[in-house]
Each structure stands twice: as structure tokens, then as C-alpha cells.
Write a structure and sequence with these properties.
516 residues, alpha/beta, TIM Barrel, UDP-N-acetylmuramoyl-L-alanine:D-glutamate ligase, eight-stranded parallel β-barrel, eight-stranded mixed β-sheet, 20 helices, 16 strands, 46% helix, binds ligand 3NM, binds magnesium ion, Hyethyz_kinase
Length: 516
């Protein structure tokens, strides 16, 4: 087997510490894992002396040869040479790649740990066969990692090496398990280069049944996550704004027919308003802030809104738990990063949530979307503050963030921008009175969540349906004679949301002619 045809799908990295291995025999655990479908194995042992390393490596090699999969040694080129295995894996602080290549020859498989674009580019130039890109998520298995880079950092590296590293294979490492593996592969993918697999220590080595664990992981590696399944049917997606708008009534009608659940974890200020809006657009609201309930609620085919407007450390744990539940079940999730840049707690909540799961849609004002993108600009309060971006920059920001997260981003303002990374639109419906009442952005998240609950085939279309339904209702409400200001605007808005739902279901689409 040459370095070129190695299967990196499920890369097992061993650990010899009792914390992970317990009192079990390393070779037996590895054999069970190979039985379960591990495709490549690295012997990583930071504790044993050289004699033990060599004898254990020999035993492991006898087993991996029976399964016809490559065995690599972490760090210790001498051990690899001594037993004649297929290659080595070296870190940034180990012997350099060029020297390792000289010692091991051109047929050896040599992998390198990288956590930055520069390290990745250098490893490609120096002839690495594969890169171990990490650390994906913070992990107790290796606490001295240089940096946790997540899916966005990994995607950046993949993009940067797409050209010079055409033949370089890549795996992600760090905190990957059966809950996270599908999202890791999906969200870190760049259109020009994707991961070839995942490297795993504890989710296999520490598993009660390493064979079963490997089987499950391998099947997850081979299957797209529930939240991606629909987006594979890319070919059907309408590219043109006009064509998309034509499909909006179908989505709005489906909400009325299916009455999906909109599960809101939201702040006290908007709970009542959001529930009324959900009812008006044809959905069934439930305001439930405890994460435990999400494990039941996610089974009802609805969607989840996480609105961090009332975040507490305990609340954050609840959001994370609910996010995991919906991701596993496959239900859509909308993030409303209210006031994301305003306080340290909110900034860290956004980071934790983005690392902890997948959001189909992230909706926020300019300041919030900038914070989500990683800007450190200090935000005052939860209003959007003065704008610093022109329209072209706003469009670029939502597009880049959507491409990075592989979801849909909505930036609200006088003009709303939405993008799925490849299609970006600006919508100028709405009314100034929306800025004079509380929670107008939050309940837009609720509206969008209901559209997603009935269709995730084209998330951008569902988001657009929610946006137009809501912003045009606001326009119609504000123009009513009985609306004298913010106070009378609120009930009128709820009425007009309801009227649009009714009219659309009855086939009357005159309201949609206002779309702009
Ligand atoms: N290298 P687990 S993280 C060996 O970031 C190793 O380079 C890492 O263990 C890196 O799958 C890591 O149990 C440990 O999280 C991965
Ligand atoms: Mg090392």
C-alpha cells in the first residue's frame, strides 16, 4: 500500500494512560477498534520507555498487518524504523519533516500536526502525506494544545492549502466523538477542499465497546448530518430573487397547514410577543427555557430559537443542551445573538454556542453579526448602534459568515441582508416603527423558525419567506389609519401577520407585490 491510497476516514490514535485505557490491554482495544472499521492507526505513547515502545509497537504492527491497515508511530522515528511500520506522525516540536523523510524514505507515510495556515503550507511544501489539523475542540486528552481552532479555523486551513496541497490528505483532531463528527466534517468543508477523515482518541479508546464505537463513528463519517441532507439537492435551488419570491407563498401556506412547533428559549421581555407572533403566522409556540425539555420537544418536528437576550451561565448550559438535542434529532435551530458584543458573558456565550452545535440560521443586527464573525468591536446595549459598514460591506459580511458556517445569515437593518454563502439578497421592506418597539428582531427569529420547520430544502428560501411575511406585515400595519405610534403598532402588526397568513392560504398574493 503506497501513501497515496491510504483511507483516512477513521483514524485511531492510541493512548496509554490509565485515564483512557483503564486496566485494559492496549493491543486488545486496538484490535477491537480495527474490527469495528478503523482505517488507519497511530501508536501514541508519551509515557513508556523505549524498550516498551518497541515491543508494544511490534505487537500492534502484527495486528494492523492482519487487517491490512497502516500503523504510524507518534513522534518516534527510531521506533518506526526499528519495527518497519508504515510511517510516523510528527508534531511541530518534533524532528522536522525533511529529516524524517530522509530517514524513512519516500514510501513512508508521514503526517504532521498543524494548527495554523502557515504551518499547514510549510508541511505541504515539505512533502507531508497528510495533515492532522487541530485542535478542533478543547479536549482533556491533550491539554497542552496550542490553540482550539474549531470548524472555522479548520476551514481556513483547508482553503489555504487547496492549491499547493492538492494531494495532501487531511484529518481533524481534538474532542471529536459521535455527537460532533458529522458537523466537524460538514462545517469545516470548503468548496475547494474537504477533510478526508477524523482522528480520534478517547471516543474509541475509552469506549466500553471500542468495536461498536468504531462502527458507529465510521457510519457517521460516511453519512451527512441531518441538517445537511436537504441542502445536498442544490440543483433544485432557485438562483434568482424573483424565482425565489414565487416560492414564498408555498412556504407560508405550509406553516398554516402544518402548525409546526416553534420552541423558543428566549428572554422575558419578548416571551409573550413571540408567542403571539408564532400563533399569528400559523405556528404553535412553546416558551421553554430548560434544556432538559428540549430532549422531548425536539421530537415534535418543530424548530428551536435560541435567543441569548437573557443569558446567564446556567442558561447557557440549557441552550447548549437544547442545541445538541435538536442537532441530533435533525430539527432546525435559529440563533438570535442579542447584544452579542455588549458583555463578556454574551461574547463567550456566542463562542460556546458556535462551537457546540449547528445553527441553520443566525439572525442579528449589524453589531451582532459582526461579533459573531469575530469582531471585537464593543457594542453598547442591545440596539445596533451606529453603522460602520456600507451596503456592499454588509453583503460581503453575511456572505462570508454564511460560507464559513455553512448556513444562512440574516443581518437586519433599514435594509436586511441575507445569504447562504452563494446567494446574497438585500430586502428593503419593513418600517421605521419596528425600531420603536421591543423585541421586533427577536420575533422575526420566531417567524423564520416556523418557515424552516416546514421546509429546510432551501434554507435561504424559508428564511426569505419569514423575512417578507414579517417585514411586509409591518409595512401594512404602519400604514393603517388606526396606528398612531409604537403602542398601536404592536397589535396591528400581529393582526397583519395573521392577515397575510390567511390571504396566502386563500391564494390572495397581493401583499407579496410589495416585496422589494
Ligand atoms: N493531538 P480526543 S488533540 C493527540 O490538536 C491529539 O494536535 C491533538 O483526543 C492536536 O479524541 C489530541 O480524545 C487528542 O479528544 C485528541
Ligand atoms: Mg509529538
Amino acid at each position: 500500500m503506497g501513501p497515496g491510497d491510504v483511507d483516512y476516514s477513521l483514524y485511531l490514535v492510541t493512548d496509554s494512560t490509565s485515564a483512557i485505557l483503564g486496566d485494559r490491554d492496549l493491543v486488545e482495544v486496538v484490535e477491537a477498534a480495527l474490527n469495528g472499521g478503523v482505517t488507519i492507526c497511530q501508536y501514541r505513547d508519551k509515557v513508556s520507555d523505549t524498550a516498551t515502545l518497541v515491543s508494544t509497537a511490534r505487537k500492534l504492527h502484527a495486528v494492523t498487518q492482519r487487517y491490512n491497515i497502516p500503523l504510524l508511530i507518534n513522534d518516534r522515528i527510531d521506533v518506526a524504523l526499528a519495527i518497519g511500520c508504515e510511517g510516523v506522525h510528527i508534531g511541530q516540536d518534533d524532528l522536522d519533516l525533511k529529516t524524517a523523510r530522509k530517514l524513512l524514505g519516500k514510501d513512508a507515510i508521514i503526517g504532521v500536526t498543524v494548527s495554523t495556515v502557515e504551518e499547514a503550507q510549510k508541511a505541504c511544501r515539505d512533502g507531508a502525506d497528510y495533515l492532522g489539523i487541530g485542535t478542533m475542540f478543547a479536549t482533556p486528552t491533550k491539554t497542552n494544545t496550542k490553540s482550539v481552532i474549531g470548524t472555522s479555523g479548520t476551514q481556513q486551513i483547508l482553503q489555504a492549502i487547496a492549491d499547493e496541497g492538492k494531494n495532501v490528505r487531511t484529518v481533524s483532531i481534538g474532542g471529536i466523538n459521535s455527537e460532533t463528527v458529522q458537523r466537524v466534517l460538514y462545517q469545516s468543508a470548503h468548496p475547494t477542499k474537504q477533510l478526508d477523515g477524523v482522528a480520534i482518541v478517547s471516543a474509541i479508546m475509552a469506549a466500553k465497546d471500542p468495536k461498536k464505537a468504531a462502527e458507529k463513528l465510521l457510519s457517521l463519517v460516511k453519512t451527512p448530518p441531518p441538517f445537511a441532507a436537504a441542502s445536498l439537492a442544490n440543483t433544485k435551488k432557485k438562483q434568482d430573487a424573483g424565482d425565489l419570491i414565487d416560492q414564498v407563498p408555498m412556504i407560508i401556506k405550509a406553516v398554516g397547514e402544518k402548525t409546526p412547533l416553534s420552541h423558543n428559549m428566549t428572554n422575558m421581555v419578548v416571551q409573550n410577543f413571540a408567542a403571539n407572533v408564532a400563533l399569528a403566522v400559523g405556528g404553535s409556540p412553546i416558551m421553554a427555557n430548560h434544556g432538559e425539555e428540549a430532549t422531548d420537544l425536539c421530537k415534535f418536528g418543530g424548530s428551536l430559537v435560541i435567543n441569548i437576550g437573557g443569558v446567564t451561565p446556567e442558561g447557557l448550559q440549557n441552550y447548549s443542551r437544547a442545541l445538541r438535542a435538536y442537532n441530533l434529532e435533525g430539527g432546525p435551530v435559529v440563533l438570535d445573538p442579542v447584544g452579542a458584543g455588549a458583555t463578556a458573558l454574551r461574547r463567550s456565550a456566542v463562542k460556546t454556542l458556535l462551537a457546540g452545535g449547528y445553527f441553520d440560521v443566525i439572525k442579528g443586527n449589524e453589531g451582532e453579526i459582526k461579533t459573531v464573525f469575530g469582531s471585537t468591536a464593543q457594542q453598547r446595549g442591545v440596539d445596533s448602534g451606529p453603522s460602520t459598514l456600507d451596503d456592499a460591506e454588509k453583503a460581503a459580511l453575511v456572505r462570508d459568515l454564511a460560507a464559513r458556517e455553512r448556513n444562512v445569515i440574516v443581518m437586519t437593518g433599514a435594509t436586511d441582508f441575507l445569504s447562504d454563502g452563494s446567494r446574497t439578497f438585500a430586502i428593503s421592506n419593513g418600517h421605521e416603527l419596528l425600531g420603536r418597539i421591543t423585541g421586533s428582531g427577536c420575533v422575526l427569529g420566531t417567524t423564520i423558525s416556523l418557515m424552516l420547520a416546514v421546509s429546510r430544502e432551501d434554507k435561504l428560501l424559508s428564511t426569505l419567506a419569514g423575512l417578507l411575511h414579517y417585514e411586509i406585515a409591518a409595512e401594512i400595519a404602519a400604514a393603517r389609519e388606526d396606528v398612531k405610534g409604537p403602542g398601536t403598532f404592536v397589535p396591528a402588526l400581529i393582526d397583519e401577520l395573521y392577515n397575510i397568513q390567511k390571504a396566502t392560504t386563500a391564494g390572495d398574493l397581493r401583499w407579496l407585490e410589495k416585496a422589494k
